[in-house]
What we know:
This protein is α/β, with parallel strands linked by helices. Helix content is 36%, strand content 16%. It is built from 13 helices and 15 strands. It has helices spanning 3-35, 46-49, 59-72, 108-126, 152-160, 173-183, 210-219, 234-243, 257-265, 336-342, 403-413, 417-420, 424-442; strands at 87-94, 131-138, 141-149, 192-199, 223-228, 251-253, 285-286, 290-298, 305-311, 318-319, 324-325, 332-333, 353-354, 392-393, 400-401. A six-stranded mixed β-sheet has the order 3-2-1-4-5-6, sandwiched between helices. A three-stranded mixed β-sheet has the order 7-12-11, with no helix packed on it. A three-stranded antiparallel β-sheet has the order 8-9-10, with no helix packed on it. Helix 4 runs antiparallel to helix 5 and helix 4 (108-126) packs parallel to helix 9. The protein is globular. The termini are far apart. Residues 1-35, 39-43, 380-385 and 438-449 have low confidence and may be disordered.
Amino acid sequence: MSDDEYNFGDSAAEEDEDILDLGNDSRGKKSAAASGYAWEEQYQRSWDVVQEDAAGSLAGVVAGIIEAGKRKRLLKDTTPIQRGIIRHLILVLDFSSAMSEKDLRPNRQELTITYACDFITEYFEQNPISQLGIIGMRNGVAVRISEVHGNTQDHIAALQALRKQEPSGDPSLQNALEMCRASLHHVPTHGTREVLIVFGALLSSDPGDIHKTIRNLVQDKVRVRIVGLAAQVAVCAELCRATNGGSNSAYGVILNEHHFRDLLFEATTPPTQTAKKVASTLITMGFPSRAIESVPSLCACHSIPLRTGYSCPRCSSKVCSLPMECPTCGLTLVLSTHLARSYHHLFPLRNWDEVPWDKALKSTNCFACLAPFPTSPIPSGKQKSAASSGRFACPQCGNHFCVDCDVFAHEHLHNCPGCESSSPARKQQLLAGELGNVASANGDAMQID
């Protein structure tokens, strides 16, 4: 065969390819014009979202993004539901070789310890009459870091001592879960049994059948929540789904450092009671008073000589901090403020409504901090009705607050300053309205003595 025939064959093939490409290109343009490319369907470029205002400034857009970020954590369901406020939680941390990765700065282990210390502080701030223990996973075994108790400083000191240790070996979910079962075995029926795992590896080196351990956890009514640092693992998803009544919300994989913190801090809220009817249980508690002694004496919890402490009303043993179970008689020792701080989970503060511009001009300053409100919408190319007024109104008292006071009231104060500062008669009206809403939400009538 001659070279001309070879060239003719090549040109014919190229011509056929051009025809095919033309047809595919025309169809591709039609489909792209209709719905876009497949890899662009769920992709949104942030630089296209941010638009400058008429003066070429981004101040209004940046302020709106900051405000939306503050409000994001507050847009949750505030319907009063039954929760377990006496919690017993085991925090399981992964210290395997996978935690040496530097995709989280400075590395996974350092950031996990930092966030775990912050989590412990927030956990006892939100759940003052609860208890917590810490377990680590390394070299295929589970290591107990701290016992189950309510002393915040002891837990943080135990975690800080782990910063000098290097991650090593593989984790073992089964060994950690079996140790958690043993630690939560003594928990009474009125307390919750929970396990929070920070898992950074993609495997688990288990000595036996982990599915048997999962069945035992379900039988013991232990709830497991997992925060994944790498990718989703099938056994972790099955573990969370089986121990949480088929729900997949207890297992999450982080996207970045901020998402890691958000997923971890979701465990500070007590879980809901899954049983339809939970039997009421009377709990014996002691309310000791603080005493100052002229001569130091040993505390029953740490055997440290102290001049100050709290005396158990049952056995007169001295403890150095509250809340705590008496080491001598086992009585739960708390203060009245601890119980009051736990009730906000049962009756959460209702979300405040954003005030539109047509109703915003009646207030010029925040009711709580007296910060001035904007008198006109920030020019950002939006309509006046669509722009944010920066005011948020309590549905009970109707006072207007800024977004910073909104966040502070819902995350820390758990009370409305406007409702608390009302007259006694007005307070009774607001309380009656709030209890009526609770009764209607629960479907039952509520009587007030």
